[in-house]
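User: Second chain of the day. Same drill as before.
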Amino acid sequence: MILLELAISINEKFELSKENHHAGVNTIKQALLLDKECGELLVQVKQNLPHGAFIPWIEANCKFSRFHASRLMNIAKNWQKIIQSWEEKCCTRATFSEAPILSLRTAIALAAAEPKPEAPPPEQIEKYKVALPSHPCYGETVEVKEELSKGDVMLCKTSKGEIPFLRKELVAESQPLKPVDAEIIDVEVEDISEQLKQAIAIIIEYLPEDKLKTVLAASLSIGKDHLPSDAQGMAARLIGGQEMAVLEGSSFA
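Assistant: Same format as last time:
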């Protein structure tokens, strides 16, 4: 029942508003007040309806379109701004009623007018000097790109690329350089050795014998400090005379 009563009241005020708007100067303030009251009642209706039911309700119960309903609610929402703008424009007149006609379109324009937001100040880029004497960027001024580990680690842009530093390994750009001791930054590295083994096995499956010997010779040269002696001996026997050439620095072909 409350929604029906609200609909009746909204339509009554809408009809009075139309009459007052047509009457002109003497009733313009009353017309706008009625527009405001219509808007406030529409807000109540919307709050009492489930999501998605407001527009169908307007179409079924009101003598105006949903777009006009939106304008009325906008006037109610921005009433203080409308009145303030009106009074500023009419401050030289004796009374409010002597002001020129303020149409609904003008009221909506005043309601929609927002002060131009000030441009936000440019974001300050944090700059530090590297205070780690053993680091190749020691003494260099670097820019912080991102803070990691809750700010304990600073990812910085340096002349050597993007490098993580502990906060204590940096000093503010404006501060004197004070060398600090190095600490190990614990960075988790993924072990992909098994994937590499599988990839190598697939590749060598398609190589001819001469290329396989060359690969084996190169592998023996690269891994001689990691291979057990029996593996080195077996590889040497298989590649024959190529072993010395590889070990003496010949290029991989």
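Confidence is low (pLDDT under 50) at residues 92-101, 242-253.

User: Great, on to the next one.
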